[in-house]
Design goal:
Length: about 120
């Protein structure tokens, strides 16, 4: 079960943070050096396959992991040009640096995060 920051500040946790709206994502991106945003849908099979990988990355890397339900956050998904799910957007130092569409291997995602986590 994911946690949401209770004090209004986005802090890296060892669990994915479920995002509701652009302001919430902006706070997470501003409050963490590296953020992996997972744009997903509950009905999406590949998204479900990616779920354990995303949870592992949240637990084992320095990145904060944000989960964005595209059905509940259509305007946010559109703002980031999400056309298909899963789409992973990586932020470093407050800027979008990578976008990956589709299921990716954990090792590939981990090395991508580590590249920006220095």
């Amino acid at each position: 079960m994911a946690t949401e920051p209770s004090d209004g500040h986005a802090a890296a946790t060892d669990e994915p943070i479920y995002v509701d709206g652009e302001e919430a994502l902006d706070q997470i991106v501003a409050g963490n050096d590296v953020v992996l945003a997972d744009f997903y849908a509950d009905w999406c099979g590949p998204c479900q396959m990616l779920e354990p990988v995303v949870e592992s990355l949240a637990e084992e890397t320095e990145a904060a992991v944000a989960k964005v339900d595209v059905d509940a956050n259509q305007m946010l998904a559109n703002a980031y040009g999400v056309r298909g799910v899963p789409t992973l957007v990586l932020f470093a130092d407050g800027e979008q640096v990578e976008e990956i569409v589709g299921v990716q291997g954990e090792d590939q995602l981990r090395s991508l995060i580590e590249r920006y986590a220095n």
